[in-house]
User: Fold this.
Amino acid sequence: MAAPPGAGGRPPLEIRGLVKEYVPGTPVLRGIDLEIGAEGITAVIGPSGTGKSTLLRCINRLVEPTRGEIRLRGEELTRLSGKALRLARRRIGMVFQEYNLVERLSVMENLLCGRLGYVPLWRAWLRRYPAEDIARAFALLDAVGLPDYATRRADALSGGQRQRVGIARALMQRPELLLADEPTSSLDPKTAVEVLELLARLTGEAGVPVVLNIHNVELARRFARRIVGMSQGAIVFDGPPEALETAHLRAIYGGEDWL
Ligand SMILES: Nc1ncnc2c1ncn2[C@@H]1O[C@H](COP(=O)(O)OP(=O)(O)OP(=O)(O)O)[C@@H](O)[C@H]1O
Assistant:
């Protein structure tokens, strides 16, 4: 599916021939080609173990790709290391299934962690963040519906509240791209919808494209403008939700007795 280009004419994300082998000779990703355009949610669906998380983690180099190219607005990420990699990483926000908040810290401190990499380490240690970061954190807490939670400890929050903080933290760094790995799998169905509505609205307003790994096909249809279906480490469907038919679901998940 053609991806509209981002600012500067380059799509925010271009992946070419991405291969990942955790065990040499056994590829988990088998040559992924994918472009992510400037806006909207792209949902990646596929059975357990098909490589969805590996794909997301290769993008921000939490997992080392074995071969292939990954470009963020034209900058090749796979060859970066040290400071250049840290600089590139902070351009990519990440929202996790298990939230990954620092449990013993306050909500505000968790949000300000989203600015680590921007704020000099000594200021972070002394907890002396710039006033504009603090103002932005309050504005984001408001935006995610938690205006009175700044001083609460993360471990006192519900799952839905934690994920709201996770989204605010990811947006704190003003990312050019947001990766969300099963952000609603640990939530009840109603909270999952609310969290995805929030994710869609805030990233839409900020103009940040999202790659969303999600098991729930109905939620993928509802919130994504594009669906990428993976099977055994390869892309077997790529199109708008309206184009995803039963035959595609069979190709993605295999079998048919569950349909
Ligand atoms: N660190 C690792 N070392 C070795 N193998 C791994 C590692 N991480 C993942 N794998 C393997 O890679 C394959 C793809 O895993 P991955 O987590 O990317 O799939 P997934 O599609 O995200 O699955 P799920 O939907 O269950 O999260 C699996 O066979 C998994 O066992």
Notes: Residues 189-206 form the longest helix (18 residues). The pocket of adenosine-5'-triphosphate is lined by residues 22, 28, 46, 48-54 (CB under 6 Å). The CA atoms of residues 42 and 211 lie 5 Å apart.
